[in-house]
Amino acid sequence: MPSRRSHQKSRRGCLACKQAHIKCREDGPPCERCRLRGTTCTYPDPPPSLRQDNTSPPKNGLLPAPGADDESQPAEEPQFPSSTRLLELQLMHRWSTVTYKSVCTPAAGDGPVWRDKLPKWALRHDFLLNGMLSLTAFEAASASVAGQNRDRYVTAAIEYQSVALTQFRQHLQLVQMGPHRHPSNSSFEPVLAFSMMLMVLALASAQFTGGQGMVQNTITHYQLIRGCGTVLGDAGEEYLASNPYVLKLTRFDDLPRLPVDSPSAVVLARLNEANERRLTGSVGEPYEARVQHVKYFEACKKSIGLLEQYFAKCMGDVVDESYQGYILGWLNMAGDEYVSAIKDGDRVALLVLMLWGAVVEQLGHKVWWARRFGRLVVEEIAMQVGKDGDADALTREIIALAIEWVVRART
Asked: Which Pfam families has this protein been placed in (predicted)?
């Protein structure tokens, strides 16, 4: 569920900024956003009532606007029940009243799907049931202040997650080997829903468990998401292309671009420089090694380019903050070759992933499942890439920039 950051709210912004659900600088007319967009800038007259309406979702994007759904945060801390039966009753109630809001997309208006349809699908698919219970238990843990109470929810969440992932892998194998390779909507809708939950589970679980590490945890869930696409194939693509909820969203490729801000441009330039150095540094190495360097160079170049697009389309004072949710799809867009580079411990690939973690950290004040994930990714990669003092000056600079972003996001 979205968490709130204390800040002063104004009711005096222009109508265009209010309609887009973004903060107006109130320096017009025209204000800065309208001046950059070339849109008409009109201020309300007379001033609107000071009563705030939180019922309207943002017009576009993947995340709730900050401060939305005040009622989604329960006043009382959840208390861990005395039996498994009562725990699952509590978690299902909490899913339908609280947790589902942290995975739905307000711009798509898909709240009823997550709140109502998922429990019905879960009656037929155990992997979805255990995934819901796991995610809700992690959310309850994040809302718990008492350490013992929190630890019990985390233990339950990990158990449900382990069972859900095993069941989901088995389900994908059955679909692949089964006689019906073209599933109907009723059979692949639960798979698509669970695939959307996977990255949220990855971010949520990694914050509470030491386990296999942040990078490996991310890769594990990524591979499951890719497995969904392989199994569903064209049928899944066709379904998504015609889904009424998906059609309400603005595609990432169609988002308007703005100039990248200076701090982002600096770190992108450093990453590109580090990537290009691998080619000049590979001169004299065996042919096979040079071929591998070229493959990873192209993969990292693509991943850096996608980050540059994200900075141009989804970040900045005049951009709808809800667009920031697109960062969760970045790894999937970066592709298999880039993930292979990460798995091989490629230094540049890890540095790019570290910057992604620093960006994800900025979502931490909006959604509970991103609260600590980005910082932990940055810390793990900084330790791995910069260990033993072997990092060159450029690598150390990139690490310092990523850490600076994390610190800035937490202040």
From this structure: Zn_clus (PF00172)
What CATH number corresponds to the domain at position 34? 4.10.240
Helices 262-281, 393-409: inter-axial angle, 10-degree rounding = 150
Q: How far apart are CA 62 and CA 328, in angstroms?
A: 10
Task: Phi first, then psi: give them for residue 260, nearest 5 degrees.
Answer: -70, 135
Q: If you search the block for the tokens 């606007």, which residue do you land on?
A: 65
Structure tokens belonging to residue 290: 């040079």
Same domain, 125 and 166: yes
> Are the CB atoms for 157 and 208 separated by under 8 Å?
yes
The pLDDT value recorded for residue 114 is 94
pLDDT of residue 287: 83
Name the helix (H) or strand (E) containing 175.
helix 147-177
Tell me, rounded to whole angstroms, the distance of Cα 320 from its chain centroid. 16
Phi-psi region of 233 (alpha: psi -120 to 50; beta: other; left: phi over 0): left
Q: Are residues 88 and 222 in the same domain?
A: yes
Residues (pLDDT < 50) of the chain are: 1-9, 45-75
Measured CA to CA, the distance from residue 63 to residue 367 in angstroms comes to 8
Same domain, 212 and 334: no
Q: Is residue 331 part of a domain?
A: yes
Counting the structural domains of the chain, the total is 3
Task: Give dist(CA 241, CA 289) in Å, integer.
Answer: 41
* Domain coverage including residue 281: 257-409
Structure tokens at 81: 């029940």
Residue tagged 């699908």 (tokens): 121
**Are 230 and 205 found together in one domain?**
yes
Specify the 3-state DSSP secondary structure of 31.
Answer: coil
What pLDDT does 314 receive?
A: 87
**Contact of 57 with 109, CB cutoff 8 Å:** yes
CB 385 within 8 Å of CB 399: yes
Q: Is residue 61 part of a domain?
A: no
Q: Indicate the helix (H) or strand (E) that contains 297.
A: helix 287-314
Q: What is the pLDDT of residue 50?
A: 27
CA–CA gap between residue 268 and residue 288 (Å, rounded): 28
How many residues appear in the chain? 411
pLDDT in tens, 93-135: 999 999 999 888 877 788 899 999 999 999 999 999 999 999 9
